[in-house]
Task: structure prediction
Amino acid sequence: MTTDEWIKKNTYHHSDFEDLQTLVQEKQKKGLTISLCIPTLNEAKTIGKEVVIFKSELMNRVPLIDEFAVIDSGSEDNTLEIASSFGADTYLSSEILPNLEEKKGKGENLWKAIYQLKGDIIVYIDADIKNIHPRFVYGLVGPLIYRDEVQYVKAFYDRPLAFSEGIRPSGGGRVTEILTRPLFSLFFPELAAIIQPLSGEYAVRREVLERISFPIGYGVETSHLLDIYHDLGLSAFAQTDLDQRVHRNQETRSLGKMSFGILQTFLNRMKTYGLMKDMPDINTLLRQFQVRDNQFEMVEQNIIEYERPPMITIPEYLEKFPRKDTSKKSGTKEKE
Amino acid sequence: MINKINDFITRFNEDRESYGNIQETLLSNLVMISETAAPTFREHTRARYLINRFISNNLLNCYVDELGNALGIIPGKSDRNILLVAHLDTFFSEKVDHTVTIFPDVVKGAGVADDSLGLAALATLPYILETYGIEPEANIILMGSSRSLGRGDLEGLRFFLDNFKKPITAGVCIEGVKLGRLSYSSIGMLRGEINYKVPESYDWTKFNSEGAIINMNDLINRILEIPTPSKPKTSIVLGSIEAGTSYNTIPTRAKLKFEIRSESDDLVEEIAHKIENLTQEMTSLSGAHVEFKHLARRSPGGTEFSHPLNKIGREILTDLKINTRLTPSTSELSAFINKGIPAVTIGLTDGENMGEEDEMIQIQPIKKGLSLLVGLILAIDGGYTLDN
Result:
C-alpha cells in the first residue's frame, strides 16, 4: 500500500462512527471490551466535565466503554477528588504496581493503565480538553471495532474557522511541524502521513500496547509510532479527524523542553534500530536562556527520558493477564 | 397533597443510586446544549441536538418546525396535552466562549442558567419518567422554543400555540433559575430601543451638538424623571447602552435598549408615549436622527392566586421546604396567558452572574427543581389543576 493509498483508506472522520448503536452492536459481536484512561496532573478545571460526558454518554446511554479510570501523577488541585465525586474510578499512579520504583510523568500513567485496566482496547484521552465530546472516544475506537487489521488509531484535528474552496495547509502544532514531521520525513517517510503524530488522544489494542516500551515523559507518543511502525508497518495505523480541540496553549520555552525529550527518544530509537551506529552518548541537559537585570543567564534542566519496559515483561502483569501460549506472538503481523 | 405526587417526591429524594445516573445525564445534556451557540434567530444547531435526544428517547413527532422550535411528544392515552417549554435562544453570539466548566458543586458557562438547564431538563425528562415508572395519561409535549428573547418576542411559542390543532390543558415554562420561583401572571411590558444617529450632513457648530453619548445621557436623565408609581407597580429598566469607539472621537451613533413594566397596561402605554415624545424633542434639539422602536409588547394577565395549578405548585414547594417566590413574568408565560391557557413558570436551581459569560448554577438544588417539575406534571395529568 502506498502512503497515498493509506491516507485514503485509513483516514476517517468521527462522523463515520456516530451511529453508536451499530458501533456497539459490532463491538459486542466481536466480544471486545474497551477501557478509557485519562492521565491527569492538576486538571481540576476540565476533569469534571470529561468524567460526566464520558460516563453519561458512553457508559450509561450506550455501553461503548466498559471501564473508565483517571490515573493521576499527584495533583495538588483536587483533580482526583473532583473526578471521584462524579463517579470515576481514580488511581494514584504510584499506587499501581507499587513494588516498582516510583516515576512521574504522563507516560508512566499511560503505561500503568495497561496493568490496571482490563479492556482489549485502551483509549487514552488527555484531560486538558475544554470542548470535550463523546466523539473523542467513538471516533478513535471506530476503526479498531470495524477493522481487525488496525491496531492503533491516532486523533487529528482539522476544522478551520473559515476557509473557501481550494488548497489549504493542514497538519499539527509547532513541535510537529518544526521537529517531528521533518525527522519522520528524513528517516521514516511513511510516518509523515500521520497528520498529528503528537496528539495525546489515541486508541490501541492491548496486545500491541503490552509489547512496547514507554518513555515516561515527552517522548511517549513518538516512541509508540516508531516502535509499532518498526514491528507492524504503516498499515497497523489509522487516524481520525475529531474536528477541533480547544486546550491551553504552551509557551515556546515549554515546547523547547518537549522537543528535547522527543529528540532524545527519536535518537535512542535510531540507535536501537541500528540506523545510527556511531552515535555518541547524548546529553540530557537542556540549556535555555533568560535575562535578569539586563544580564543573560543560562537555565539548565536535566530531562531524562526514562523508559518503562514492555508491560509483558513485568511478572505482576503476566500474573494478572496470564498467557495461554507464550510462544505465540498475538497481534503482531509482518511488515508490509 | 395528592398521594401520587407525595410518593414520587419521597422516592425521588431518597433514591441516590438512580438519581446519580439522572444527574450525570442531565449534566451531560447541559454541557452539550450550553456549548452549542444559539443566539436568537440562529438556534438551529441547538434545536437539532434536542431533537436527536428526543428521538433517542423514543418520543413521537420529533421535528424542528418552520419557526425553528424543537418538538417531541411523550405519548399518553388521554386527550389532555401538557406543554413543557424552555427557550432555545441565548443573548450570546457565536463569538463568545461557550465552554462550560463543571465543579463538584457548580456549573459555570455562558447561558447555563438561561436557559440551557431548562432545555437539559426537557432532554432528560423522558429518562426520569422511565426510571420511576411514570406513564402519564396525558400527552407530554416537550418544546425547545425558538426566537424567544429580545427581538424574537416569543415568536416560536406563539407560532406553535396559534397553529397546534389540539387544546393545551396547561403549560409549564422551565427556567434554570431560581428555585422557588412560581410565576402565574404576566405584567404589562413594552420592550423598545432608542437609536441615535448623526446624519452625514450634520452641522457640528450647532448648539447641543455634543455627540451621541452626551445627548443620549441627557435623554436618559429625562426618562428617569418620568414618574413610576409603586401602585400599580411600575418600572423602567434601562438594560443596555452602546456608543463610541475610542477616547477622542465624538460618537455619532448610540443605542439604548429598555423595558417598561407595569401592572397597568395604560401606564405602559402612557410611559411609552412620553419616551417617544422625548426622542422627538431630542431630534429637534440636536438635529440628529433619534428613533423610537417598539420591539415587543405584553399585556398584563394570568390566572388567579387561588387557581389549582398555582395552589399545587405552592404546596409542592412547601413540601420540598423551599420558600415560594411569586414573581410576575414577561417571558414564555405571556404567550400562554394570551391564549387563556393556565401555565406557570418555575426555576430549577439557584445561580449567580445571570446574563454574564460566567453564569453559574448550583448542582445540588436541581434535584428539588426536578421534583417540582415532575410533581406539576403528575398534578396536571391527574386532572387536579382544572379550574372548576
Notes: Chain A has a mean pLDDT of 90. Residues 252-272 of chain A form the longest helix (21 residues). Chain A touches chain B through 21 residues (CB under 8 Å). The domain at 7-320 of chain A is CATH 3.90.550.10 (Spore Coat Polysaccharide Biosynthesis Protein SpsA; Chain A).
